[in-house]
Amino acid sequence: MSESADAKSSGIPVAELGIEQINALKTQVEQELNFFQESASQLKVLIQKTEQSILSMDVLKAAKPGHTALVPLSESMYVRAELDDPSRMLIEMGTGYFAEVSREKAGEFFERKKKYITKQV
């Protein structure tokens, strides 16, 4: 290493650390690694949910007013509902905010969201 690289490095060589310090460093690195792995997993789940939203919108393209659909109330409970205007979607924009938008605007929103999340992974 050059002198300028040594001057920029403010770390302590591992060879100079004691066993307790090395164990503490190992624990810290493992915790950080777990955090990043969990974050990446959560982002991948968000991408899958966004892709599912896009696919669900495609299914409704052929729907006409009066079309019936099963609407999930929970992961295991659904209710049959009649669509008044299948060209309008109610989308969750995040942190509990919803907006009613056209199918086209909803598609644009989900594509932007997918692109943004993919960059985060």
From TrEMBL:
In terms of superkingdom, the source organism counts as Eukaryota
One GO BP on record is: protein folding
GO cellular component terms given for this protein: cytoplasm; prefoldin complex
Gene Ontology MF terms: unfolded protein binding
- Give the InterPro entries listed for this entry: PFD_alpha_archaea, Prefoldin, Prefoldin_subunit_alpha
Q: Name one Pfam family in it.
A: Prefoldin
Q: Which family does it belong to?
A: Belongs to the prefoldin subunit alpha family.
How is the quaternary structure described?
Answer: Heterohexamer of two PFD-alpha type and four PFD-beta type subunits.
Name the chain's protein. Answer: Prefoldin subunit 5
